[in-house]
């Protein structure tokens, strides 16, 4: 019987720090990162989909990140399973540790499940079957957990930062340069793209000074922003529901609480003196160190 390849999987709700933790761990364990966020497969909306910048990757090789053309169709979970098989094989041949990071849990389920049925969606409310608990890879699952009110406050602040960094202009240019499909698919499903669709059909990006806008335009913009936040919050709830379902199915998922670190991140965003350094110290102590221990124990276990 062939030994299963070892792999680390970083899970969690959107905005919970999966990208940052995966880079920290990859540097510690000489790993390469495979993206499992379906919106980050595509090029063209780097700010909107919150792709890690080259600087944030800190020299760690990343796979399936910003590689697809915006007009490429939706990547199914079955296609993802095949794509990542190849990436894992290449990484292990280089004697590196494969590390999967992202929030698309339907993909995370499809990849390691020994028995995978692409027809039946295991996370639907009416799914009557059981989720496969036998895995074809030897996986170390780490779930970054953040208390919901704290995460929601952080996500609201993060959206404000993204907008100041050019998210709105990026979405407007995307709409202008690409033809929208009849039904949203692929990157067109990215949160922010659809929410600003109605706004951009009426208002052009020729006047971004909100002080000059009339009340109707201001309200249209605020409506889109509210929708982005509401849909982001709903996405996090759906992501956690899926992780819990995998846990209940017998997947050994280690939960690590990052709430304290995110409280400090909120303080830092509000420019509390010394909060940024404190946040990093808490991140290292409360999240990174426990995760390093989890992975060390996992790697020390014999390969079956």
Concise overview:
47% of the residues lie in helices and 11% in strands. With 304 residues, the protein is an alpha/beta fold. It has a domain at 6-151 and 232-259 and 287-300: Rossmann fold (3-Layer(aba) Sandwich), CATH 3.40.50.300.
Rg over CA atoms: 20 Å
CATH architecture of the domain at 6-151 and 232-259 and 287-300: 3-Layer(aba) Sandwich
Strand order in the largest sheet: 3-2-4-1-5-6
Q: Uncertain runs with pLDDT below 50, 5 residues or more?
A: none
Q: CATH H level of the domain at 6-151 and 232-259 and 287-300: which superfamily?
A: P-loop containing nucleotide triphosphate hydrolases
Query: Would you tell me the structural class of the helices and strands?
Result: alpha/beta
Note the gap between the termini. 9 Å
How would you spell out the order of helices and strands? EHEHEHEHEHHHHEHH
Shape: globular
CATH class wording of the domain at 6-151 and 232-259 and 287-300 = Alpha Beta
Can you give the helix content as a percent range?
Answer: 40-55%
Number of strands: 6
User: Quick check: average pLDDT?
Assistant: 91
Protein name: Adenylate isopentenyltransferase
Keywords: ATP-binding, Cytokinin biosynthesis, Nucleotide-binding, Transferase
InterPro entries: Dimethylallyltransferase (IPR039657), P-loop_NTPase (IPR027417)
Family: Belongs to the IPP transferase family.
